[in-house]
Design a protein that fits this description.
198 residues, 5 helices, elongated
Length: 198
C-alpha cells in the first residue's frame, strides 16, 4: 500500500510504503518523516502545508515592474499624470518588498539547500541588491522632484534608466529562479526513480 510521507524539515512529500532513508531535498534523517493522513485533506490545509513565503514575495516585483513600465508608456503617450503616479507607487512598493524577498530567499537557501555555494544564488543576491539600488535612486529622484516627468533634464533620464534597469533585474531574477526550480525538480525526479528501482 502506497502511503504519503512528509519531511518535517522541508516539506518534501514522498510516496511509498516506508519513508526514504534520507530526504532527497534537505538530507534529513528518515525519523523526520511523518505519515500523512490517507484521507484527502482539505484544500486549505494542503495550501497551508506547502506555502512558502519566498516565491510569493519574489513574484511581486516580477509582476509590478512591467506594469509600472506600461503605465509610464501610457503616461508618455497620453500625458495623463495618474499613470505616472501609479508607476511611481509601484516602484515604491517593489523597493519595499525586495529586502523581504531577498531575506526569505536567504532563509530558504539555508533551510532547504543547506546554503550550498552555487553561482546562481550569488547572481540572484546581486540582482536583488541592484534592483533595490535602482529603486532607491528612482524614489529619491522622483520624490525630490515631483514634476520630474514634465522636464527634459538629466534627472528624468536617470529616473527612466533606473526603472528600465529594474525591469531588466526582475527579468533576470525570474530566469535564475526558474533555473533553480528546474534543478530542484530534476533532483526530485532522479530521487523518485532511484527509490522505485530499490
Amino acid at each position: 500500500m502506497t502511503r504519503r510521507w512528509e519531511c518535517s524539515v522541508c516539506g518534501y512529500i514522498h510516496e511509498g510504503s516506508e519513508p526514504p532513508e534520507s530526504c532527497p531535498i534537505c538530507s534529513a534523517d528518515r525519523s523526520k518523516f511523518i505519515l500523512l493522513d490517507t484521507e484527502k485533506s482539505s484544500l486549505f490545509h494542503e495550501m497551508i502545508s506547502v506555502f512558502k513565503l519566498h516565491p510569493v514575495l519574489a513574484h511581486f516585483p516580477s509582476g509590478l515592474i512591467p506594469t509600472a513600465v506600461c503605465f509610464l508608456m501610457v503616461y508618455l503617450v497620453t500625458g495623463k499624470a495618474d499613470f505616472e503616479v501609479a508607476a511611481f507607487l509601484l516602484v515604491v512598493f517593489v523597493t519595499i518588498v525586495v529586502p523581504l524577498s531577498a531575506g526569505s530567499g536567504i532563509h530558504d537557501w539555508y533551510k532547504y539547500l543547506n546554503a550550498r555555494r552555487a553561482p546562481v544564488f550569488y547572481k540572484k543576491l546581486g540582482l536583488a541588491l541592484t534592483l533595490f539600488t535602482f529603486g532607491l535612486i528612482a524614489i529619491t529622484i522622483r520624490y525630490s522632484q515631483p514634476a520630474l516627468m514634465e522636464t527634459n533634464d538629466w534627472y528624468r533620464w536617470l529616473y527612466l534608466f533606473c526603472i528600465i534597469g529594474m525591469l531588466g533585474c526582475v527579468g533576470l531574477l525570474g530566469h535564475y529562479g526558474s533555473v533553480l526550480a528546474a534543478q530542484t525538480v530534476q533532483k526530485q525526479k532522479r530521487t523518485v526513480s532511484k527509490n522505485k528501482v530499490e
